[in-house]
Here is the input.
Amino acid sequence: MLWDILRLRCPVCRVGTVFRGPYLMNADCPSCGTHYERENGYFMGAMWVAYFMGVASIVPTVAILVLHYEAEMTSVIMIGALQLILLQPFIYLYSRMIWLYIDRANGKKGWH
Here is the structure.
């Protein structure tokens, strides 16, 4: 399953691709036809996943900068912000993928 998430594959068939471009999601799986957006606001949960991914990625950086290098707070904030900006494309993609797989695992109606 982790390999399928990393390869951005459909949570149902694990063959079709979820994204057709860097930020463009397919409405349906090109392989099995599963519709990805279940309802309006469906990906609000992915925003929570993205938030936790961002926090999880920045905490080690901040800890190292503060505890090991005794960096000033301005530097820590600037480096942390730059890190989040650079990671944002990956956080966007993978937060949506993780959300799809979480929703599929919960067995809600509408999934094949």
Observations:
- The first helix runs from residue 2 to 6.
- Helices lie at 2-6, 44-68, 73-105.
- Residues 52 and 95 are 9 Å apart (CA to CA).
